[in-house]
Amino acid sequence: MAAILTVTGLTKSFGAVPAVGDVSFELSPGEIVGLIGPNGAGKSTLVNCLSGILRPDEGSVRLEGKEMAGRRAYRFVRAGLARTFQHPRGFATMTVRENLAAAAPRQQMAERVAAAAAGSGLDHRLDHLVRELSLSERRRLEVARVLATGARVVLLDEVMAGLAEQEIEELIPLIESLVADGMAILLVEHLVWVVSRLSHRIIVLDRGRVLASGEPAEVLSDPTVVEAYLGQAIA
């Protein structure tokens, strides 16, 4: 299937410090690509460049053939790419319904809110304030806000962070359902077992550059990946 997101030669530095160097990859509908690497590898910088929060110094970000590199974040959302954040960003004093409405296009607001709430398992919490939600529910709200935008490409930035294993197991089917609906997902995650379980392919970043890329079993047993990040191969 043709790629919906094509990243070519993406580079970003902060002063003399290179954060992302010459990163290239593609993402297709119905595919999860995992992005892993040690702290400071450049994962957050890459995601910020792919979502309009940062402007890359060099390189191309093409979304359905349209060049997006350097555009503002709201233009990425309008073009069909949305993201979650490591720290949930819901409006704490607003209800779940109001948070979803804020993310949805005005013309389809009611329909999108209902679908996002149902799809994320939050339909029974629509009229609760966000501050009343558990961390697991706030993580679901992050995903629901993405659903409400109607995005076709989703960047999940450590959406499992802070959750207990049982809560993670309950969130995994939600992510699988997004792919079943044809979304393309870049999954940034420190939990390697989650990435291995969900991803069709894995990209490993180290010091801002792609250290390895390929199918999970191949990448996670690569000696260079084991040495740089894992410490031991993942069975």
Can you walk me through this structure?
The chain has 235 residues and is of the alpha/beta class. The protein contains nine helices and ten strands. The protein has helices at 43-50, 73-79, 96-103, 109-120, 135-149, 165-180, 192-198, 216-220, 223-230, and strands spanning 5-14, 17-27, 32-36, 58-63, 66-67, 81-83, 153-157, 184-188, 201-206, 209-214. The strands form two sheets. The protein has a six-stranded mixed sheet, sandwiched between helices. A four-stranded antiparallel sheet has the order 2-1-4-5, with helices on one face. Strand 9 (201-206) and strand 10 form a beta hairpin. Helix 3 (96-103) crosses helix 4, helix 3 (96-103) packs parallel to helix 5 (135-149) and helix 4 packs antiparallel against helix 5 (135-149). The two termini are 29 Å apart.
Which key phrases capture this entry?
25% strand; 235 residues; single chain; 37% helix; alpha/beta; globular; four-stranded antiparallel β-sheet
What is the residue-averaged pLDDT?
93
Helix fraction, binned, reads 25-40%
Total beta strands: 10
Strand content: 25-35%
Radius of gyration: 17 Å
Largest sheet: 6 strands, mixed
Would you tell me the structural class of the helices and strands? alpha/beta
Strand line-up of the largest beta sheet? 6-7-8-3-9-10
User: What is the element string, with H for helices and E for strands?
Assistant: EEEHEEHEHHHEHEHEEHH
Given the structure, what is the number of helices?
Answer: 9
Low-confidence stretches: none
Q: Which outline best applies?
A: globular
| End-to-end separation | 29 Å
GO molecular function: ATP binding; ATP hydrolysis activity; L-isoleucine transmembrane transporter activity; L-phenylalanine transmembrane transporter activity; L-valine transmembrane transporter activity
Organism: Sphaerisporangium rufum
Keywords: ATP-binding, Nucleotide-binding, Transport
InterPro entries: AAA+_ATPase, ABC_AA/LPS_Transport, ABC_transporter-like_ATP-bd, BCA_ABC_TP_C, P-loop_NTPase
